[in-house]
Amino acid sequence: MNILYICADAGIPVLGRKGAAVHVREMCGAFARARHRVTLAAQSLVKSEDDERAPVRARVIHVQSSPNTTTAVHAFKHFNEQLGLENSMPGELRRLLFNESLYQDLKRRFFHHRPAFIYERASLYGTAGVRLAAKFKVPLIVELNAPLAIEQAAYRATGFGELAAQAERWTLTHADAVVVVSAELAKHVRSLGVKASRIHVMPNGVNPELFCPNKTEHGCDRQTQPPRAETNESAVAGAVHTAACRNDMSVPVLGFVGGLRPWHGVEVLPELMARLGKKFPDVRLVIAGDGQLRGELEREFKRRGLTKRVTFTGALLHEKIPGVIRKFDVALAPYPKHNHDFYFSPLKLYEYMACGVPVVAAKLGQIAKSVNHGKTGWLYPPGNVAALVAGCEQLLRDAALRRKIGDAAAKLIHAKFTWDHNAVRVVKLAKVLKG
User: Fold this and answer.
1) 3-state DSSP call for residue 303?
2) Tell me, what's the pLDDT at 197?
3) Closest Cα to residue 217, out of 407, 378, 1, 86?
4) Is 283 exposed, middle or buried, given 0-12, 13-18 or 19+ CB atoms closer than 10 A?
5) Topology (CATH level 3) of domain 215-416
6) Residue 43 and residue 57: Cα distance in Å, rounded?
7) CA separation for the pair 419, 247 (Å, rounded)
8) How much is the pTM?
9) Quick check: 99 and 69 in contact, CB under 8 A?
């Protein structure tokens, strides 16, 4: 089948390092492995032209804003400058107007060679997919990864909140099917008026050829994948030199992979390290990722005298992440309590587990459904730092328990949570919708 995959979100550079970009590329890869032809249409390819571009198994179309849109956005920016204002309005205007650019570009390209169906990652104000599906008379399957308007209002307040909510409702109610990553998100979609029969829950997954525990079982080797010196992944080698390179397993290594943002709960890491240090004086922490909270975390680790025990790798290419995870003794998913349902499907959770590393995670939403406490991971009440510390201590003390949980977790993820599994479900759904 010919599949048109749309990612209109300018904040998702589809060839870059963000988790959302990984999701896009891995779904494209899964479709391709199932012998489908994929065209990926995106507004953003990389965050910076200097960034290394990740490979993707799809024909890529870079759709850019029209000259008229650029002129309007510049005029808005100039207006702000005149008034001495700083706000997100110009960027929001660009998102709104990009819909027309995207629609016109793809309508022209596919007019005589229409796709079998359109698979669109939902974006703020994104309505072009609905129009294109109607024009081509093909099914539209929209993938929703978060309640976009609510998230925008909570974390990136703008002046177009109501308009964003209306656009989200319109797109989802006009789609032929909506794929969501969690049961909590399915509840949100139902509240917008989408029939339950059109909503399909598909949690995030992994590429099992990339995220696996060892060579014997899954084709990659924990002991023979040292970080390459030319990347900042080499910082991990220094952080765990004693434990990983000299095979001195007396040095425990905790790890976190992901964006350093408020909703990921990384603010608790300095307190966690301080408490664990009382019983495990040599404990180390590797933080693989970057984000707005990095400076704050570095200052707090320094204030507590923990700087030498913590390594920040910065953002890494996705194919480098498995080698980092496999150096962890315990992986962390310390999500905090939120004032809304926990609608996430944490990519890091499945990647940790697929690599056979036991995870200590907050008992929230889909995490609680994916992790069997004490068997495929360790759960604790969100916000309970003492319970988080106790879970880490339990696993750090017991190597046999770590191996048992890690092995069970890897088997679970490889059996049920892969991108290939999701792609098969999407294609079957598209065939049903086509009749």
Assistant:
1) helix
2) 97
3) 407
4) buried
5) Rossmann fold (3.40.50)
6) 18
7) 34
8) 0.88
9) no
Options 3.30.720.10, 3.40.120.10, 3.40.50.2000, 3.40.640.10; which CATH number does 2-205+418-434 get?
A: 3.40.50.2000
Question: Would you tell me the crossing angle of helices 294-303 and 269-276 to the nearest 10 degrees?
Answer: 30
Triad 37, 43, 48: Cα angle to 5°: 110
The answer to whether the 2-205+418-434 and 215-416 domains have the same CATH topology is yes
Task: Please write the tens of the pLDDT for every residue from 361-384.
Answer: 999 999 999 999 999 999 999 999
Query: Per residue in 79-129, pLDDT tens?
Result: 889 998 888 888 888 888 999 999 999 999 999 999 999 999 999 999 999
Task: Give the number of other CB atoms < 10 A from CB of residue 45.
Answer: 18
Name 120's bridge partners. Answer: 6, 142
Give me the residue spans of the domains in the chain: 2-205+418-434, 215-416
CB 252, CB 283: distance < 8 Å: yes
Place of tokens 């990921």: 264
Task: Select from 120, 113, 124, 112 the least CA-distant residue to 140.
Answer: 120
SS3 content of the chain, % helix, strand, coil (to 5): 50, 15, 35
Q: Which two tokens stand for residue 163?
A: 């308009």
Of the candidates 112, 116, 157, the one whose C-alpha atom is nearest the C-alpha of residue 140 is 116
Residue in this structure with the two tokens 């990384």, named with its chain if needed: 266
Residue written as token pair 């084709």: 219
Q: Determine the Cα–Cα distance for residues 344 and 365; give it in Å rounded to an integer.
A: 8
CB 128 within 8 A of CB 102: yes
